[in-house]
Design a protein that fits this description.
The protein is built from 12 helices and 14 strands. With 342 residues, it is α/β, with parallel strands linked by helices.
């Protein structure tokens, strides 16, 4: 068992369906930590994601892992949260002090989940990460390494083109066209839609009142993939999804020349029906790109960021929104000071 004087880091991955944490030795290799999870998410209030709620979920998990590891304190931590950029005001204001008091954290990174997905998928080197599940966002670092470059991730009403909700919505549109006898319809997708949701005419009443509409739309994306090999309408939907994904990746690449592009998120688990049109179109939409699977997940990325922060070796750009970094003023009793750790 590691002794209590060892340096420890904590990664947190907070999403819409729950929260995961990992405690790891600061100098340990990837995968050397231990994980725990909570099956419910932090609540959102008037100031966005509620810091008290998030800390209430993290604290018992972290304390359990610290006891098991014999860790006296946590030296650095990274909290990655969905919605950090727009809903992170309360976290940025209160978590640095709360983590210092609760765990002795000296350095803290507060990151959007796209940033932790980037680090988990690609590490800390330059490149592009496409994170696609229900939604879709592409993230890269500028050529000079000083700022993030982001494309899409604007939600299912304004964007997320090529993501799971987009594919599902396009598939259901084709199903409803077939139901009506309009051009562009697919009887194959209509059959799958009715198998999943019931009679087509009842679909608006089943879908529109749902608070989780993006997830419901995305649940139909695998059905689109199922019949893409034999149905030209479904195949075309996935070809257009691949186009949108590659266009977003091209918008955030650091510059001309070879570029690593990591594909992260559950959407790419549908396999060849999406990956094949991605590869086919990359030659002209994203030239000199090396498309490959993500090396790890967002929690891996949070731990990697925390470890680099502990070593003062974090090369990713801090911008106060996607990635906020704070250090500790030890002369002031261990309370976090508003300095930026470079």
């Amino acid at each position: 068992m590691p002794d209590s004087d060892s340096a420890w880091v904590l990664g947190v991955d907070s999403g819409g369906s729950g929260l995961r944490v990992e405690l790891a030795p600061a100098a340990g290799p990837t995968g050397s930590g231990t994980r725990a999870s909570a099956p419910r998410p932090a609540v959102t209030g008037d100031r966005g994601i509620d810091a008290t709620s998030l800390l209430g979920l993290v604290a018992p998990l972290a304390e359990q892992l610290m006891r098991e590891a014999g860790a006296a304190r946590i030296d650095a931590a990274c909290v990655g949260a969905a919605g950090m950029a727009t809903l992170g005001d309360d976290l940025r204001a209160r978590l640095p002090g709360a983590f210092a008091d609760a765990f002795g954290v000296r350095r803290l990174a507060l990151a959007g989940d796209a940033v932790t997905a980037y680090a988990g998928a690609l590490g800390l080197r330059s490149g592009v990460v496409v994170a696609a599940g229900t939604g879709m966002i592409a993230l890269g670092v500028s050529a000079d390494g000083t700022r993030w470059r982001r494309a899409d991730g604007w939600g299912h009403l304004l964007g997320d083109a090529g993501g799971g909700a987009w594919i599902g919505r396009e598939g259901l549109d084709a199903a409803m066209r077939a139901h009506d006898g309009r051009a562009g319809g697919s009887t194959a997708l209509l059959a799958l839609a009715e198998e999943r949701f019931g009679p087509a005419a009842s679909l608006p009443g089943r879908l529109y009142p749902r608070p989780d509409r993006p997830a419901v739309l995305a649940s139909f994306a695998p059905d689109v993939a199922r019949c893409a090999a034999e149905d030209p309408v479904a195949s075309e939907i996935l070809r257009r999804a691949a186009t949108h994904i590659l266009e977003a990746a091209a918008a955030v690449r650091p510059g001309p020349g070879p570029v690593d592009v990591a594909l992260a998120g559950g959407l790419f688990g549908m396999g060849e029906p999406l990956l094949d049109p991605l590869r086919d179109q990359a030659e002209w939409l994203l030239p000199e790109a090396d498309l490959h699977a993500a090396a790890g997940d967002p929690l891996d990325g949070a731990v990697l960021i925390a470890s680099a922060l502990h070593r003062s070796a974090l090369a990713l750009p801090a911008d106060g929104v996607l990635l906020t970094l704070t250090g500790t003023d030890t002369a002031a009793g261990g309370r976090p000071a508003p300095e930026t750790v470079r």
